[in-house]
Structure formats: C-alpha cells, structure tokens
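Q: Protein A?
A:
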Amino acid sequence: MGSTECTMIFSQKRAETRSYKNLMSHQLKNIKFKGHLRFKETNGKYVFLSDGDKHPDEMDKLKQFFRKHHGLYKFLKYVISPLYFDNFLNKFIENNVEGKEGCYINLGSGSLSIGENIINVDISDYNNVHVVCDVSDLPFVDSSVDVVFILSVLEHIAEPSKTVKEIYRVLKPGGLVYCEFPFVVGFHAAPYDFNRMTDVGAKELFRQFNSVDVRVGSGPTSALLWIAQEWVAIVLSLGNRYLYRFWLLTVMCLTFPVKYLDVLFNFFPAAKNIAATFVLVGRK
C-alpha cells in the first residue's frame, strides 16, 4: 500500500510558493490536502477550522490539563479505566504501518499518539495533533491515505455515516480502516455521546467496504465493571455531583484489576452479546 508519490500538494498558487520546510515533520510529508480549502499554520499544525467552527464545552478545562499531561491520560485510559485493551492494535500497526512508506492518519486522536509516522487529526489542537479539522469533513484528497485509525470516536459523532463515507473517500483502493467503537458502556460525553453499535450494526455502517471483520475489543467483564462502578458511585454520591466524581474515581482505582478477566472471556463466542467494545477492520 505504500507509495513514494504520496507527497503534499497544494493547487493554490500562493500555497505552492510558500516554504513549509520549517513546519514539515516526518509524519506530514506524505499528506495530500484538497487544494481549494483555506487553512492556517499554527505551531506546526494545519488548522482547517475557523474560530467559529470550534466546539467549546464544559470539558475544555480538563482537555487543557490533558494537553500538558497526556501521559496521565494514557495511564487512566489503559490502566485505571474499566476497559481491557489487548495487543491487537499494536500488532495491526506493526503489520501494516511500521517500516512502510505511506499515509497513515488517526482521526479523533485526542492527546494520544499511537505511532511515530501516524498523523494525528482532531477537532481540538492538542500538542500532538498535526491536522485540526472536522473528521466528518476531511481536508485530504480522494484515494490518498493508506490506513485510517478511528478509535472510540464514532459514538461522539451525530451522523457517523458521514465520517465513514469520508474515510472511504480518502482511502486508497485496498486501504484499511481500523475502528474501535462501544456497545455496552456508560454515557461519556466529549463533549457529546450519541450512539452505540452492535457488531452487525457496524458491518452495515461499513457496508461499502469490500471486506469487513469485527471482533470483540473490551469484553463482557469490562462492560459489567463500567456499569457496576457507575452504580456504586451514583448510590454513594447521595445526589451530589462532586461526591459522584470522587467515588467514581475511588471505585475505579480499587476495582480496575477485575477487567483482566477479559483476557479469557474475550474468546468466548457469546462475549459479543454484552461486549463493552468492538474492533472493526475494513478494506476498501
């Protein structure tokens, strides 16, 4: 899937005459942007959103904190959270990205980076984000990307079908999409939370792809643990939102090891009936 011809192209005359040398990074050298779009360069980022396009929310202060402490966020997500993550993503990156020349993008990356040569795309300008845009209206040209990652993002999009169509549009023929999405998990707005999907629902959403495979991501123990933690925090909070947050974090810290039972249960055929999350891999 790699291609040495995948270089940054701007059709606008003034864009062609400008020097991007100081702003270019190894991650960005293989991108093609649609030439008619307006953008600005800020601290090495390509920003395709005007100030009016951004979506501020009550979580902004927390997001600002994690921009500076993304290591803490990574620890909370992969260790303390109720969700069990296996090594499937790392193996996928090793087999399809590492050591290969091509265009690789992670949509809705947030403050996390999943690979040195994977371009981070998000609606918020976290420190590690390279392209700031709406993931339902991508600035990349048709058939220019080798692999698209979209991890726990579709549930936060009101019309996920638009994003899936955009993913299909920007992927090269034979390109891959790696998508993680929730099924049995609690409400988690960032800033919004719109939907959940079964494995069958995901296959329908990605039906235009030539091949689609769906597997359990975080299994039934993760789902049960998430709901149990929320229930305990709600009961002990006595209706106070600050007590709720305190008890939720406390219960998470005390009970997170239980999720590792999914190391076993993920392989049970019935695990998909109440799985916390699924992983989909599709080929265009």
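Q: Protein B?
A:
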Amino acid sequence: MKKILLTLAVASLFVGLGVSAQTPTLYQNQGDNLGMQINAVRAGVPRMASTSEALKQAREQIRIEKDAFKSKMETLKAEVKTKRDQERTALKNKLNEIKDSAKKAAVQRLDENINKLNSNFVEKWTKNLSDFDTNLSRLIDRASTTSATTTDLTAFTAAVDAARAAIASARTALQAQAQKTYSLAVSTEANLKVDVSAVRESLNWDLKAVKDLVQNAHLSLVKVLTEFNKIK
C-alpha cells in the first residue's frame, strides 16, 4: 500500500509541472468541455460487474491498452522526427532571405527549443499515463482478492470505470499532441518577433489542454484509491 501511495505522489509531482499560469477566456468553459470528452470516452469503456473475475478481466484489458498506447507513441515519435527534419530544411531555406545572421541563428534556436519543449512534455505525460495504468492494475488486483469477503464493490468498480475513461481520454489527447510540430512561419525580417510569438502561444494552448486531461486522469485514480481503502 505504501508503494502505491508513493507512486501516486510521485506521479502527481510530474503532472503538476505547469505550462502557463494564465487561463485565457477560451478555457473558461474548460470544465464543461472536459466532462463532455470524458463522458464520450466512458461510453466506449465496458462497465465491470462487481466480481473477482470481472476485476481480473479489467486488469488484463488495461495491460492491452497500455501496450498498444506505448507502441503507438513510439511510432508517432519516429514519424515526427522525419517531419521535423523536413521543417528544419524548409526554415533554413526561408531564413536565407534574412540578412542578419544573428537573427537567423536566434530563430533557429527558438524553433528547436519550442519543439523540444513539446516533446519533453509529451514524454513526461506518456510516463505519467503509464504509471496510472500500473497503479490502477495493482489496485484492481488487490481488490479482486478482497471481493471474496466483500459483497459490495459497486463504488470501487464505478471509480475504476471512471478512471479508465479519464485515462483513455488523456491518451487520445496526448497522441494528437505527439503528432504536432511547431514550425516557425517566417514572413519578413520585420515580423520575426510576431511570427515567433504566435507559435509559442499556439504551443501553450495545446499543452494546457492536454495537461488538464492528464491531471483529471490522476484525480480519477486518487478516487479509485479512496474507494479501495474503504474495502481493504
């Protein structure tokens, strides 16, 4: 149990890394949108019966989904690498129109840094979701041994259903984010600052949206732990 609590605590630290302290008007209805996304995903997650066998089946399904997600993210990483190589070449050709060598070097550094920031968050949140799956499986495994003497696992299984839906929703968003690159659309030398600012803002919006879903998945896992503590 201590190991589970410790892992959850560590995961929360990773998820808690901020992207931006600002919450623009666009996200004022984030809570409603988030709930709609999770409900849509939840509809596709089979509900479990409150039996030991059903818990074991759910645990196996989580393993399958975890492995599939890992494989998909590795494929996307390779695809993005190829795409970024092409974008670097295109940016370099575009920057030939700019005479100031210092400005050209600065733009190239920013291009690399922005995309590196995105890949760092994608990798971190990918690990978070993997940890969530591992901890959820452990809780299900322990609850299945308890069900022989506990007749009512309704609240626990409902929490597991919600956690699986929240994790699935976060996976979907993270896969979409992993495919994105942020190429600087350089127009003119005079507009360099504006061009860079637009790309950075776009990245910030995107990361904020994914972060909300990963944090919600973490909170849903904490709820499973809470319900488990009631039946152990």
